[in-house]
């Protein structure tokens, strides 16, 4: 334990010296060796003392994994590295290998200032290498390059010394071409990677060795020697003479910026609040005495401490007991523990100053991507503007019944880690629904549940979520009668003003507001003054308005009427999908004076039926979800990508050229995008990168509406023909 303690002391003594800190991410195309490299850096620098490093490094990589029982991949790591007689603290943060969600990588890039880009010497720069590099440059994160698996060039491709150097030179040129194509200014300002300067290292993460030009001078081992050692298969000597972690960490310290330097350049790019504010100045100066600004990039579960939120602290000092606010959540959370990661272990420390990667427990409302601050009103980092509504659903089942309790726990956890997922757990029927942004999103979540959480699951084929709405209004009030015929409700149905719908979605208006403030907002959005004054309830994007005057017993009945309205709009009359954008106006009402005769069993069905029949009388419409599709593709593959979109009822919205790539922005209905991942790969020879985001709901063309209704109703076991108002007005 003594040694661990010593390392912890070294780490904490460096935490408040931002010029001695480097926050880095390791990014790579899948299978290019990110995890192996992370494990290696850790084994080499500080988690194990230097004397032991030699012995321990040569344990087979898998044994190392087994001994620790965890890939560090899942955690963030802090380590101490000595360079030219000074100690530095390197915080390494894990970045997800899957780049199917730019969001994940962007969030990881948000926390770091520099990135080690790992590229396989044989495969070279791959599509994903391009994506991660582009994300890094967009976030103002400085890259260096590690060329991995150099031994494969010799052992598999049998190249000679000359060819080896030519190939490596070409690979570096390719990476620089990418950097230049993405950002000419940065390229000119010294962001290109340069082997002779030392911002490129070469080696094998599996066999623990690496070289870089500056190191050749001190170790006497260059490409010629590497070639000879590889020829005879003597990796051990190579690893002893030039350990991987030395080459990589030296490069990190020399070329990647400290938080002091980086935050000056980065804060303006990642935070769009007031530039004259105290918070901005404090983040820019990496000020430990300023207000708290903490970006959560990862949430993991510790069996003892509960949820651990990890992220980057840009300003202030985190201490236990602090009351902090999480963007979008009204109540505060109290910090229970503050710590850092050393290897896979979390070590508690008293306080963590700005510029560090911190692990915090007690932030119960935090989710991946949230901003945590000491000021309730603080502007969050990089606003994710679109309110994404989950549009594709799959049912999830545990393969083994004994895993059921675990599955429920895992689904709750996954929902927290990924803000774009919507999980419905029905304890009664045992059906668990997972709704997400698209087919690919759900596939990956399902894959991660099995891989990371160890629960075997099966998922149903994906189903699109539709919405019901109206395009016209009822000609007069629709009468809803209670089952005992003693109560009658007269309700008119019409479309809700589009500006009001947008205001509800954006959270600008709710029933919790002061009546006057609410009324003024609604009038400014185009609602009639009288209606705005009489709003009684809002459910999703539908409103219920009471236009009656002086009715007895109204107050006590209102709660039940709203219940009926909610039931009608939750499962709409056309095919039991959620209703949006409907305004229901209560015009008149006849109530029985005896409370016994106007209970829930009378009022709720009467109002529900009047609203459902009214929707069917007001030109009902089915809306389908659309996604914006962003595709980056080399010019010569553009045709394939365009025809893929156009063949799926898609519309091309814009096309731009960026460097040697074409960026296509299009939109298409979600129902047509199933199978798109494989199809676009085929159409562009795997050279396109694409992502989607929610683009709202649009009416289905009238010609296709009846067929869609038939399909949805059939799937739900309902009568397949389009329902009529009279179906709902049976008294």
From TrEMBL:
Residues that, per the record, bind GTP: 28-35, 94-98, 148-151
InterPro entries in UniProt: EFG_II, EFG_III/V, EFG_V-like, EFTu-like_2, G_TR_CS, P-loop_NTPase, Ribosomal_Su5_D2-typ_SF, Ribsml_uS5_D2-typ_fold_subgr
Domain of life of the organism encoding this protein: Archaea
Coiled coil region boundaries: 147-174
Protein keywords: Coiled coil, Cytoplasm, Elongation factor, GTP-binding, Nucleotide-binding, Protein biosynthesis
Molecular function via GO: GTP binding; GTPase activity; translation elongation factor activity
Pfam families: EFG_C, EFG_III, EFG_IV, GTP_EFTU, GTP_EFTU_D2
Location of Diphthamide modifications: 597
Keyword Disulfide bond applies: no
GO cellular component entries: cytosol; ribonucleoprotein complex
This protein's record includes keyword Metal-binding: no
Subcellular compartments: Cytoplasm
Domain Tr-type G: 19-260
PROSITE patterns associated with the record: G_TR_1, G_TR_2
UniProt record similarity statement: Belongs to the TRAFAC class translation factor GTPase superfamily. Classic translation factor GTPase family. EF-G/EF-2 subfamily.
PANTHER family to which the protein is assigned, alphabetical: ELONGATION FACTOR-LIKE GTPASE 1, TRANSLATION ELONGATION FACTOR-RELATED
Function: Catalyzes the GTP-dependent ribosomal translocation step during translation elongation. During this step, the ribosome changes from the pre-translocational (PRE) to the post-translocational (POST) state as the newly formed A-site-bound peptidyl-tRNA and P-site-bound deacylated tRNA move to the P and E sites, respectively. Catalyzes the coordinated movement of the two tRNA molecules, the mRNA and conformational changes in the ribosome.
Protein name: Elongation factor 2
Source organism (scientific name): Methanothrix harundinacea (strain 6Ac) (Methanosaeta harundinacea)
Lineage start: Archaea, Methanobacteriati, Methanobacteriota, Stenosarchaea group, Methanomicrobia
């Amino acid at each position: 334990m003594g040694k661990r303690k010593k390392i912890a002391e070294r780490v904490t003594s460096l935490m408040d010296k931002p010029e001695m800190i480097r926050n880095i991410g390791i990014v790579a195309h899948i299978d290019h060796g990110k995890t192996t490299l992370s494990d290696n850096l850790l084994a080499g620098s500080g988690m194990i003392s230097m004397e032991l490093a030699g012995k321990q490094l040569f344990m087979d990589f898998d044994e190392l994994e087994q001994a620790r029982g965890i890939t560090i991949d899942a955690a963030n790591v802090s380590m101490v590295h000595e360079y030219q007689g000074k100690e530095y603290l390197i915080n390494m943060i894990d970045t997800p290998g899957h780049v199917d969600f730019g969001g994940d990588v962007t969030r990881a890039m948000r926390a770091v200032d520099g990135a080690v880009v790992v590229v396989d010497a044989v495969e070279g720069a791959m599509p994903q290498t391009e994506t991660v590099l582009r994300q890094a440059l967009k976030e103002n994160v400085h890259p260096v390059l590690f060329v991995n698996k150099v031994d494969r060039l010799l052992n598999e491709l049998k190249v000679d010394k000359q060819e080896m150097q030519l190939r490596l030179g070409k690979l570096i040129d390719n990476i620089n071409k990418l950097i230049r194509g993405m950002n000419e200014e940065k390229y000119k300002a010294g962001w290109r990677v340069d082997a002779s300067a030392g911002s490129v290292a070469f080696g094998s993460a599996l066999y623990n060795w690496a070289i870089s030009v500056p190191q050749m001078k001190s170790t006497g081992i260059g490409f010629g020697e590497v070639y000879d050692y590889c020829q005879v298969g003597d990796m051990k000597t190579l690893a002893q003479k030039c350990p991987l972690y030395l080459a990589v960490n030296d490069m990190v310290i020399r070329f990647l910026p400290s938080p002091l330097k980086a935050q000056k350049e980065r804060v303006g790019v990642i935070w769009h609040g007031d530039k004259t504010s105290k918070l901005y100045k404090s983040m820019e100066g990496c000020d430990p005495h300023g207000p708290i600004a903490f970006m959560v990039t990862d949430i993991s579960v510790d069996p003892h401490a509960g949820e651990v939120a990890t992220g980057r602290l840009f300003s202030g000092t985190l201490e236990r007991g602090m009351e902090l606010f999480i963007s979008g959540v009204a109540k505060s959370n109290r910090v229970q523990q503050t710590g850092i990661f050393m290897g896979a272990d979390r070590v508690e420390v008293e306080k963590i100053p700005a510029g560090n990667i911190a692990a915090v427990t007690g932030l119960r409302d935090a989710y991946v991507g949230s901003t945590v601050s000491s000021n309730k009103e603080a502007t969050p980092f990089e606003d994710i503007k679109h309110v994404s509504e989950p549009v594709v659903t799959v049912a999830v089942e545990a393969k083994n019944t004994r895993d059921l309790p675990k599955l429920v726990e895992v689904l709750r956890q996954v929902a927290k880690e990924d803000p774009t997922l919507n999980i419905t757990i029905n304890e009664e029927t045992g059906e668990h629904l997972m709704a997400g942004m698209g087919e690919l999103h759900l596939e990956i979540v399902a894959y991660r549940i099995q891989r990371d959480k160890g629960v075997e699951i099966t998922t149903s084929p994906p189903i699109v979520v539709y919405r019901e709405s109206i395009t016209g209004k009822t000609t007069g009030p629709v009468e809803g009668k209670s089952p005992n015929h003693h109560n009658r409700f007269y309700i008119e149905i019409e479309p809700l003003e589009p500006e009001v719908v947008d205001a509800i979605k954006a959270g600008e208006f709710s029933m919790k507001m002061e009546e006057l403030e609410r009324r003024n907002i609604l009038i400014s959005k185009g609602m009639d003054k009288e209606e705005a004054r009489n709003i009684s309830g809002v459910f999703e994007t539908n409103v219920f308005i009471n236009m009656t005057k002086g009715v007895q017993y109204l107050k006590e009945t209102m709660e039940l009427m709203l219940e009926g309205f909610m039931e009608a709009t939750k499962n709409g009359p056309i095919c039991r999908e959620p209703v949006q954008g409907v305004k229901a106006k209560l015009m008149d009402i006849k109530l029985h004076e005896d409370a016994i005769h106007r209970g829930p069993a009378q009022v709720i069905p009467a109002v529900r039926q009047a609203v459902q029949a009214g929707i069917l009388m007001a030109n009902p419409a089915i809306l389908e979800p659309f996604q914006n599709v962003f595709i980056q593709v080399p010019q010569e593959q553009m045709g394939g990508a365009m025809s893929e979109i156009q063949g799926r009822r898609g519309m091309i919205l814009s096309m731009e050229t960026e460097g040697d790539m074409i960026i296509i922005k299009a939109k298409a209905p979600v129902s047509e995008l199933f199978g798109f991942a494989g199809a676009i790969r085929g159409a562009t020879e795997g050279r396109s990168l694409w992502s989607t985001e929610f683009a709202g709901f649009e009416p289905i063309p009238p010609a296709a509406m009846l067929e869609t209704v038939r399909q949805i109703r059939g799937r739900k076991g309902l009568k397949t023909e389009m329902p009529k108002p009279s179906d709902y007005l049976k008294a």
